[in-house]
Automatic annotation (TrEMBL):
Organism the protein comes from: Nonomuraea guangzhouensis
Gene Ontology molecular-function annotations: hydrolase activity
Keywords: Hydrolase
Name this polypeptide is given: Alpha/beta fold hydrolase
All residue ranges annotated as the AB hydrolase-1 domain in the record: 42-272
Amino acid sequence: MNNSQEARDGVVTSYKNAPNRTVSAGGVDFAYRELGPKTGVPVVFVTHLAAVLDNWDPRVVDGIATKHRVITFDNRGVGASTGSTPNTIQAMAKDAVTFIRALGLNQVDLLGFSMGGMIAQVIVQDEPRLVRKLILAGTGPAGGEGIKNVTRLSHLDTVRALLTFQDPKQFLFFTRTRNGRRAGKEFLARLKERTASRDKAISLTSYFTQLAAIHRWGLERPHDLSVIHQPTLVANGESDRMVPTTNSTDLARRLPDSELVIYPDAGHGGIFQFHRQFVGKALEFLQR
């Protein structure tokens, strides 16, 4: 479907062309985009550390939007959303719920990636009736192994990236194998496909506040995940440096109704490296 046809039919099918919108609630103007069919339970994407609307892989968004209404958003204080970034995952979850309710939604599926997966775990515990199904990618439970090291790794790889004139995500999200390096370059190129109406980059203040929230999450006592009865798909690469892959295994073991997918020769960004396989799996899981 081309741009003019998209406009005529009123259904946006590509993330590249999804207009920037805002909704106001709780004193915050939340920036968001939506696409895909208007019917059914929407899939709300909850994003990672330092990410804004432009950090979602368009192949993943467009793939899921072939069958589902997809909504991406900037949480409070991030990108084009107003307000100041909270310093706990719990407060971020409350803001996300405020945003979801502001759109008049009573039931959603959640796709949480990395920090977004931490936020999604809190949302489903705070508001169990709001969530139908859960996809947790590249993430871990409260108190999970190595999560408190995210700050150190992020700083280290940001320096490595500056010294080699690369994007830190090339190191943080992908393995250093030939496949991993190639997948990283392809992913970063896809993030640049949208050229008009791009989002504002995250501020340094917000980035450091998010790092502090993740650090706190890593030091928390484990939550009782047996209370989460929603069907959950847990996905990761087999060599996640940021949120060690053992956390995905741990999540899948502790969640009562879960399924685990681990991608070979892939890191934190496994769902982007294996976007075709992941989209196929996610669609099958959501429609089951």
